[in-house]
Amino acid sequence: xxxxxxxxxxxxxxxxxxxxxxxxxxxxxxxxxxxxxxxxxxxxxxxxxxxxxxxxxxxxxxxxxxxxxxxxxxxxxxxxxxxxxxxxxxxxxxxxxxxxxxxxxxxxxxxxxxxxxxxxxxxxxxxxxxxxxxxxxxxxxxxxxxxxxxxxxxxxxxxxxxxxxxxxxxxxxxxxxxxxxxxxxxxxxxxxxxxxxxxxxxxxxxxxxxxxxxxxxxxxxxxxxxxxxxxxxxxxxxxxxxxxxxxxxxxxxxxxxxxxxxxxxxxxxxxxxxxxxxxxxx
Length: 282
Ligand SMILES: Nc1ncnc2c1ncn2[C@@H]1O[C@H](COP(=O)(O)OP(=O)(O)OP(=O)(O)O)[C@@H](O)[C@H]1O
Hints:
By secondary structure, this protein is α/β, with parallel strands linked by helices. The chain has two domains: 7-230, P-loop containing nucleotide triphosphate hydrolases (Rossmann fold); 243-282, no CATH class. The chain is built from twelve helices and ten strands. A six-stranded mixed β-sheet has the order 6-7-8-3-9-10, with helices on both faces. A four-stranded antiparallel β-sheet has the order 2-1-4-5, covered by helices on one side. α4 packs parallel to α6 and α5 (116-129) crosses α6 (145-157). The chain is globular. The termini are far apart. The chain binds adenosine-5'-triphosphate (ATP). Adenosine-5'-triphosphate is lined by residues 16, 20, 22, 40, 42-48, 90. Adenosine-5'-triphosphate binds at residues 16, 20, 22, 40, 42-48, 90.
């Protein structure tokens, strides 16, 4: 029997207004400790699904559950859920509200009833892990979008959640910001956290995720390992462009150039496979 997922959405349907079906029976299951990428075109419903996972929105039909327990939406349930499942919004301005960086990040742990000392320890550790500790006294409105994004992530990390749900965390980050985010995600995964990320960065998602869900028009149209989804021929029907790597592999003629069934998951892996083949021919 499959293990109970940490978070599950079962046939979740939601309308912002009559006639607008933002989610149309969306279903997903997030195994504990996994790295899950949610991809899909603009307007597919990714952010809406995340707002359901954090119980900010409530479905008109269908159900969400945490460790097999259906969401109950009472005050106690909401407080516990939001401590265990941290949501990083797409737009950091939605999330940040305090005057300076440390005050913003310390708010969550203080709200959990921790001592001021423990809350500060957690907030500083979280800022350190996203490379923003040196900015702790900076006014939030002085920060760049990428820096705000990192502070928003720190605000969630400081709550020490079991799962982080991040809506397009790589958008707007420069190279050091991306590197730092990748390191943070690797550190969180190594620490056993469950990670669910919505992204348009398909190459990154393919390299990073254990499991990929594809959402289109409010419905989950595909789910599987990156290799499973790469191997599907109907990427256009899934609502996103065929990943570049798959095109490269196809253009190279995967059967003649790459071992049968091998689908490279990164440019580096493709280069290594090709280099290995060239060496083998000498
Ligand atoms: N606050 C809102 N009020 C009304 N409609 C909304 C609202 N937020 C989203 N929608 C609509 O719900 C649908 C799903 O939007 P959502 O933002 O969840 O998609 P998304 O997959 O996150 O898109 P993107 O990749 O552009 O961030 C869209 O049709 C969108 O126009």
